[in-house]
Amino acid sequence: MEISRYNEEIQNYIIQIQNNRGQDSTTLIELCDKLEDYGRRNDDDALIGFACFSRGETYYLLNDMKNFYTQMIACLEPMEKLGEWGYVTMANNMLGIMSLNRGNAPFAMDYYLKAIGYCQKYKLPDLEWIVHMNVASLYYNIGEYKKSLDQLEIGYHYIISHPEMPDYYNNLITVYMGMSKNYLRLDKLDVASSYLHRIDCECTHQVDDINKLLISCLRARLYFVRKMDSQADRVIEEISEGLTLDMPIMDMFDDLYDYLQMLLVRGMRQDFLVAYKIVEKVTERTNIKNLKKNLLTLKVKYYKQVRDVEKYQEAAIEFFDVSELMERENRMMVINMIGMRSSLNNLVQLNKEVEQENELLQRKSETDPLTGLYNRSKLNEYGEEAFERAYHQKTPMAIEILDVDYFKQYNDNYGHQQGDKAIQLVADIMMQVRRKNKKGNIFCSRYGGDEFVIIYEGLSKDETMAAATQLKQMILAERLEHKYSFAADILTISQGICWGIPNDETRVWDYLHIADELLYNVKKVSRNSIKIAAIGDIKQQ
Hints:
The protein has 541 residues and is of the alpha+beta class. Helix content is 69%, strand content 6%. The chain has 24 helices and five strands. The chain has a five-stranded mixed beta sheet, with helices on both faces. 40% of the residues are buried.
């Protein structure tokens, strides 16, 4: 990002954001808000994308996954427009990590494949190895330990050929730990131990506190498997002192889960309870059901082990409730879907070739030629994706259908060219509202003729209504003459909106159907009046 073209104040904001990464989160978010506000007032995608990415990165470190997801999704479009492929790659990579922690390996792999595709297309080897490391974690999670080792090898060869990189030793530790964990799962204990020995010999003088804790967790597991009880006890004591509520749980959960499981199997109940409560508190902040479900499996086993029937039943019911919420994810055949991508590199190469051949055609097929908005075909695709995101995140979405009042009369009396200009005006104002929106995401499309569809993601009911009202007021402010209208002497629109949080009983077309009904009801308002947008709740239908 080229910052020299900005004034001193904006340059200072950017530099402070870069310097505060991973440190003062409150200050960083405030700076991002100021930067984004300036960017939106000046239609500067670079500042908007950078602010959203930096905020998302901060929410990730704070274990606030809802806000992380919203910000990372929001940064993608402006960064793609500008060709900031490094940021696009990092955003997809982090979205992949979040998807994996949510228990959705296919979604995670899709994000990782996109990230690797960008790296190979735009020559970003300094980022590609990081994505391969995360693909290794994905394979480890689904029990494909040999494939995980293959991915770790890619990361290892990049790291050792770049000893000048920042955090060289911590990156090397991550590879060695990954190797050790996979060989431990493959029951090759000598090889697993050898990688821990390499950490001791090569890296301990540079290890940070997080890696120190994770190394100890792995070491304790190895001691346990080798029946080296006294050594294991000593390490477990060190781990108990190192667990804190400030841990970046998304990067540590798998290791801590394996460690807790080892304590339970070993019968170290007091140590288990102490560690479990800390991990549980940190995990709760993420609001990720899959992580909670994994922890509940350990809680159920613990109460069964201590023969506390009442607590066992409570934990089992809680586990069932969480599992039910995840039923849709559980129906996915994770390993089979991953297996279909038998060769990661071959698939990425195929995707690149298809992308090159179809890029222009794809843009044309998704865009309405008159307005530049997305067309109905893209709406169908995007609507399903938005619904899935809202369903999995338990966040609100809304669909608005709007049309121009008495457009036929306008077209017939002012002519088709003026009719086209009126349609373009509405489309332009829709995009202005979209750009001014600072929260969530707004998707605009032309449905056909004088009808348009807007999808609001992550906005409350009041925020959705405010955006819809803003759109209406901006169109009215144009005061485009329409003396043949029965609503007013200027061009007006009617709006129907369906809002709600998706559930198992709803589909995206339910939103469209209800929005269409509400639009029809608005149309029945008596003549000579400016129509107010009607908004309905999906849960009440």
